[in-house]
Design goal:
It is a single chain. With 149 residues, the chain is of the alpha/beta class. The chain has a single domain (4-148), classed as Rossmann fold. It has helices at residues 14-24, 55-63, 75-83, 101-116, 129-148, and strands spanning 4-7, 28-32, 44-48, 69-71, 87-89, 95-96. The protein has a 6-stranded mixed sheet, sandwiched between helices. Strand 5 and strand 6 form a beta hairpin. Helix 3 (75-83) runs antiparallel to helix 4 (101-116). The longest helix has 20 residues, at 129-148. The protein is globular, with a radius of gyration of 15 Å.
Length: 149
């Protein structure tokens, strides 16, 4: 059975995940270090990990299985999930793929270096309705693909 794992601390699409998961009857884990209200949906389980830099990522990577789905903006976590045969999806609807995760990790390192030197000081742009819609569409496709795996 396909399960969904959400890196939930700063995830802007928790409600969208719930809509898709409920439609397909999929067990979903919202993994965070606190501050999220427990969901009322019986398919959803809130997992609160001890606070730490990668505690939520480690929990997800330790529990996710082949053909499960991870929703995250965290590129290293996505890479760990892909290695386990899982699907990894960004909240903006883009998917992480085995053939592009290396480039995404390298770009992340470059951007981190630019932020540390002060060359880049802004954060990400606000989440848009178009990204929300793209996520819903892509999540549906990924769930269908995962169920066939």
């Amino acid at each position: 059975m396909v399960e969904i794992y959400v890196d939930a601390d700063a995830c802007p699409v928790k409600e969208e995940v719930e809509r898709v998961a409920t439609r397909h009857g999929l067990k979903t884990y919202l993994v965070c270090d606190g501050g999220i209200c427990p969901p009322q949906n019986p398919l959803f389980q809130l997992v609160v990990v001890t606070q730490g830099a990668d505690a939520a990522d480690d929990w997800i990577a330790d529990h996710i299985g082949k053909a499960d789905i991870c929703v995250t903006n965290d590129i290293p976590l996505a890479g760990r999930c892909l290695k386990q045969g899982a699907f990894a999806l960004k909240p903006n609807g883009e998917t992480y793929m085995d053939d592009s995760i290396g480039m995404a990790l390298a770009t992340r390192e470059i951007m981190q270096g630019l932020r540390e030197t002060g060359e880049i000081t802004g954060g990400p742009r606000p989440f848009s309705k178009a990204e929300q819609s793209k996520f819903l569409d892509r999540m549906e496709v990924v769930v269908q693909e995962a169920k066939r795996s």
